[in-house]
Amino acid sequence: MADAAAVHNLPAVPLIAGNKSPDDVTREVCGALDAKPSGLWWAGLALSISALMLGVVAVAYQTYTGIGTWGLNTTVGWAFDITNFVFWIGIGHAGTLISAILFLLRQRWRTSVNRAAEAMTLFAVMCAGLFPVIHMGRPWLAFWMLPYPNSRGSLWINFRSPLIWDFFAISTYLTISAVFWYIGLLPDLATIRDRTKTRAKLFSWLSLGWNASYKVWHRYEVVYLLLAGLATPLVLSVHTIVSMDFATAVVPGWHTTIFPPYFVAGAIFSGMAMVLTLMLVARKTMRLEDYITPRHVDAMCKLIILTSGMVGLAYATELFIAFYSGNPYEQFAFVNRATGPLAWGYWIMVGCNVLVPQLFWFPRVRRTLPIVFIVSLLINVGMWFERFIIIVSSLERDYLPSSWASYSPTSIEIATLAGSFGLFFTCFLLFCRFVPVIAIAEIKAVLHPSPSGRGWRDSQQAGAPGEGITFPSPFPGPGLIVVFDHEADLLHATIAARKQGLPIVDAFTPHAVHGLDRAMGLRPSRLPWLCFLFGLLGAGAILLFQYWTTAISWPINVGGKPWNSLPAFIPVTFEVMVLCAGVGTVVAFIWSSGLRPGRQSALSDLRVTNDRFALAIGKTAAFDRAAVEKLLAPFHPVTFEERAS
Amino acid sequence: MKDAEPVIEEVNGDPDFITTRRSFLKAAGFTFAAAVAAGCSRPPAINSLPYVQQPEGGLVAGRPVLYGSTCNACEARCGLLVTTRDGRPVKIEGNPDHPLSSGSTCAVGQASILGLYDGERLQYPIRQGERSTWSDVDKEITAALERIRQQGGAVRLLTPTITSPTTAALIAAFLGSFKNARHVSYDAISASAILDAHALTHGARILPRYRFDRADVIVSFDADFLGTWISPVEFTRGYSSRRRVDERSPSKSYHVQIESRMSLTGSNADQRLRVAPGEMGHLVTHLAAHLVDKAAILLKPAELAPSPLQPKLNAIAERLQAAGKRGLVISSSQDVRVQVLCNLINDAIGAYGTTLDLDRPSYQRQGSDSELIELREELKRGAVQALIIAGANPIYDLPDAAALTSDLRRVPLLVSTAERIDETASLAHFVCPDHHYLESWSDAEPVSGVVSLTQPTILPLHDTRSLLESLSAWTTGTPRPALDLVRDHWEHVIYPRAKVSEPFEKFWAQTLERGVAEIAPRESKPRTFELKAVRPILRSEELAPNTFALELYPKIGMLDGRHGHNAWLHELPDPVTKVTWDNYACFSPAAARRLGVADGDIVRITADGVPPLELPAFVQPGQHDASIAIALGYGRAGTDRFAKVGPPWFEARPPIGLVGVNASAFVATADNTRRYTGRAVTVVKTGRTHPLASTQIHHSLEGMEGQEPRPIVQEMTLAQLAAAAVQPRETEGDLWPTDHPSTGHRWGMSIDLNTCTGCSACVIACQSENNIPVVGQDEVRRQREMHWIRIDRYYSGSDDEPEVDHQPMMCQHCEHAPCETVCPVLATVHSDEGLNEQIYNRCVGTRYCANNCPYKVRRFNWFDYPHEDRLQNLVFNPNVTVRSRGVMEKCTFCVQRIEETRIEARRLGKPIADGDIKTACQQVCPADAIVFGDLNDPKSRVSALGQSNRAYRVLEDLNTRPAVRYLKVVRG
């Protein structure tokens, strides 16, 4: 693994400040969940829930009275609704970017923020998913988007419609994000389970009996990598598909091929800004200054400059292409965007998204957190306006001047927007309270070695959480459990033991230890093959299904398109492929690892979910305990324990 | 569940119509119990008998029955075929056999069916403001009349123009029994001066029948003959027949409109002169001087002041001269001198006999302003003992309403036959409500020799009574059935004029079936032209500085306000301004700039002797800088009912008070005629605003300054048309395989933009046919009007003198419909006959289809839009689904008509012939601009028109391949 500091040319400061031991991490992150929430948290929650309630009332009124309570009209059929939808989906993208793409790129600094970013993704996608449903004239019939056999003949759905692509993309995205998040949480849930008394049962159930076994860690790493690999094209596809809602339409200002990359860049850009906003808030309110350091903020700011540049380039390209195309409708759409009735919104968008982020070229600005915070807020505003301008200014004035119209939102729409923020922040604040905000297991892997070597062992306080709890159940099979304090000790001890021909039964570690698989002689996991198989099956099945429904079961002339509109079937095929591959792999992993809710975890030492490393050596006929102890003595074993059964 | 209950209340509304679960179960239970009880006893002996008299045509549930009738919505009296389904009239069609209207109707005629189901019509006779019975009312009225008869008191009957010969005869009989009785008729929108002028020049107070179908050159001074003037449907038919361009020998009539406001007629003119109302007489004199000089008829042009428009007028005069008897000069001026001058010109070019018919004159305007003025004098003196007001609303129509009100209060017997307690009826001692014309027997002779019958299409909904029956009751003491009265009159007066050999019975039955008969005209012997009557107008009237000349005009739909309770007409966009639900003061752009007013700024308009008027301003290109135009017909009593139109929700801003403002106080009287134009008024800005509800906010074909006009409305010149050879249309290749070969029918439409005048009859026809809801002013302001067909109106050229294009726009039924591909749930798909179909019950309401429609013809049900008046639900066409909230809708090419014709053709074993199917918009079109048919049939009219050099499709570049082809406007 390349050193992040070297790659980024950063000053060689540790990723995590405060010279923390793994136990410190465990204690601080878990401790935040047990501690009484701060007044600031309560205030935030009260505000969020108020906004949420306002939104709930607005949506209820609108559902009861009619979508006419929005400011839409015959010409402008979408405005706040789809703006909010695209906005929230965009916010979600940064979470996946940080957790998956930065993971693939081995950006170790992501560990401080990825948990929160993933949670943000999940909540943002939830918010986003609401809007396509509530924006319908008859939201109670939203399930008609599903291709289910019905008594209508069966009447299927229109796989040529970008809205169906959207539906598949969003549901896949939500599912994969949730699964990814949950898989990432598993070791941490076990860590909390072993440290808490109040909610132990819940966490025990949620952690699926995670026992820190390295055999599971070994598969877990593969699954995590596979999910990251799937999530990366998924995140690109989702916003590509969202952009196709517009790009495949005939509306001037929407009908452009630049939209997919433009939207993806914009999404990541806005998401980064939102991650920054949230992290800066969480850092203060949850007292995580040591984990989210200015170095993280600095890295995020640089990403923002990059994505801002991409967005700015997209704006310029749009204008150029409109000019270059010679298409008068297109030209008008862009002149109208910049000078028409919504010009103020256009210039807010350009100002906030292109001009303001240029401040981040200055290191001093990047390090002045209040300014970073303000800029991140402005970017959020700018990106909201980007979607609003694209949608409304294009619709307002399209082909027939007779039908040009204007749009202004009603109180219901504003309340709904506020409500979506309420939902988002309510979820986020609750998340902060009930789920570890920092990926404990991952952060331990990137703790900078302390100058005093293994000095942190000495700094341990007596009576650390979990101390004194008896073994929940014996380790299966006769053998010797050797406990170490340091991953390197474990690694070397394993190598030494294996060299001696001792049977290595398993190892137990609080986080994945690199190289241990080879040391233990574990075969590479076959999960990638399963993943490939699931993906192939899903893609093949949905492609055939789309063909069958549109060309064979009930062929309908839709816009003169051929029965087999293969290009239109690709987005859904891709989404279902990712869904099947992702969910299938995770299910296979859980099943093959024997994890399931209610399983009693058999721990060799409670602290293997905190800061200790255990090696289980099987007993052979020629087992000699003294020889083993002698062999492993150089690796600072803490305890030897013999198990009979 | 508790919350849901008010919804049921809301949906069902009128308690009489509520069917709750309980009441349904009660009824069902009763039926069951009755059946059980009936089963227990021996059935009584019932002799079932067949219909002694089969209902004509045989009443079959679901099958429409069409009744020939006559429209009563204005005095033009077009022929109708009223479609009734299951015994209730649901749609008005024009009667193709009618010689004047030839199957067309106007927006007002179409909308008049809604008036039948108006729940606010009087449902019983009223005596002194209290509910009464017909026998009581009759007893008292006849007793009072008897007293007056014995005392020799004055009896006056005030009506609008009476076109019904039976009614006229009954009036004569009724008044004949009094010593001092007189029938006074007036028209709210008077044409008295034309009749008076003919009395001067031809010795007979008659209105010529204008024959636009024979006119090569038309010069109209302010007469909005395509919109509201006298008989617009008849005139539009005639006019458009000379605007339809035959491509083999392209020619068309030349139309000059000289006017101060932008009228619908002016918007269609080949040449439009924008002049102040005060100049009009002077210009007519110039035209006369030029022509009469040439025709060597005496006129002294020496003292005639010059006019800057003289060169243009000379050119027009040359054209008129060249057209000779095929020229026509008309004016809507109420100045008799102007009308006399028009007569002089028409006479000089020899137009009498061709474009003006005096042998078969029109009876569509008979009102006499001088008689009205005389009656008002009598009323002021208190000399009238009994005044019966039938069909007129003088308090609303006439200026100085306060004085008239106090005069009417002093009349000992005041009877009104108004259908509702209107401005006048509220003063009456007795209100004897007349039937709606769709409930009653009557007849009409709009033009001498053209007689038609009005027959009831439904039993009267309420306890109302035909005017004919009321008159007979007051004459003889007992009412005779109206059918007998009409039949009698026809047998004794009309039938002899028919000069046919068959017996009366047969003639009657034939006329009843056909709806109309052509018989010998009434005797009329106009004199030759009387030159002495000519009074030249030597100079134009000067306006005082900082004053405007007011022009009051009837608006399409509202006319004189008689349909002020018709929601369809209130929501019909004005064909020129596109504003709904209001009247307003039209200013020219220059005048608006000078006053600093914009659309919706409330201005106060004052003139001597009348209370000031406050109404919103509207900037109207083409309006003369020194004139303001205000529509009459607004501000009718009781129109505050429309506050209930539209959805109730907390941000809704329903209209407060009456709809619009009544401007009739500004009608001036001079030289025994009522003048609608020329009154000097001053204007002040009040600083308040009243946003107008307009359906169109951008008016030019250019996207922005400096861009080419978009090729949406396309034009060519006569010369280009003559030069062009018919070229086969190129068909472009397609990347996709063609999986949808069109083998059967392929429905398509052609719309001739050169004949379309923009009259908007199609808009209301479509509304009536397709159950399109009225959404109310607030919703129109939010640009949520629901009309499936709209008339787009574009201005080009300068703001002052723009060229105007009208373009009917409805679903284009694109072969490659952008709406279809984007619908997630297949709620809009393509039929194998080329229709873009909308499946309401599948629609979930994403509105993506509407966003992706380049023509923006899709309409969304933002709310439930029920009729404000529940009785009006009876007007629904049972063949068309009433759409619920949250679904998209749009033009279906009247798919229900296609299916009905298909079923009928299948039943008869015949193929569907070209012309068998007419869409509602096509059926009503007075200009015959819309043709519907099968594009796969090479011999169909629509295919032939599609091959024309003029044919194009809107936004063809998008490759949406619409099934609607437009024919280019031909200029020059």
Chart the SSEs and their pairings.
The complex is a heterodimer of chains A (645) and B (972).
Chain A: H1 4-8, H2 22-34, H3 39-65, H4 80-104, H5 114-134, H6 162-193, H7 200-206, H8 214-247, H9 259-285, H10 294-325, H11 328-339, H12 343-355, H13 363-367, H14 369-396, H15 411-434, H16 440-445, H17 455-459, E1 479-484, H18 487-499, E2 504-508, H19 516-520, H20 527-553, H21 566-592, E3 613-618, H22 625-632, E4 639-643
Antiparallel strand pairs in A: 1-3, 1-4, 2-3
Chain B: H1 5-12, H2 21-40, E1 64-70, E2 79-85, E3 88-94, H3 107-116, E4 126-127, E5 130-131, H4 134-151, E6 154-159, H5 165-176, E7 180-185, H6 192-202, E8 207-210, E9 217-221, H7 232-241, E10 254-259, H8 264-267, E11 271-274, H9 280-294, H10 310-323, E12 327-331, H11 336-348, E13 356-362, H12 369-381, E14 386-389, H13 394-397, H14 401-409, E15 413-416, E16 430-431, E17 442-447, E18 450-454, H15 467-476, H16 482-498, H17 504-514, E19 516-518, E20 548-553, H18 567-571, E21 579-580, E22 585-587, H19 589-595, E23 601-607, E24 610-619, E25 627-631, E26 668-670, E27 673-675, E28 677-689, E29 693-694, E30 715-717, H20 718-723, E31 747-752, H21 761-769, H22 777-781, E32 790-797, E33 802-809, H23 818-822, E34 828-830, E35 836-838, H24 848-851, E36 859-860, E37 888-889, H25 895-908, H26 920-924, E38 930-934, H27 941-946, E39 951-952, E40 964-967, E41 969-971
Parallel strand pairs in B: 6-7, 6-14, 9-10, 9-12, 10-11, 14-15, 15-16, 20-25, 22-24, 30-41, 31-40
Antiparallel strand pairs in B: 1-2, 2-3, 4-5, 4-16, 8-13, 17-18, 18-19, 20-28, 21-29, 22-25, 23-24, 23-28, 26-27, 31-38, 32-33, 34-35, 36-37, 39-40
Helix pairs in contact in B: 3-21, 4-15, 5-15, 5-16, 6-11, 9-10, 9-11, 12-14
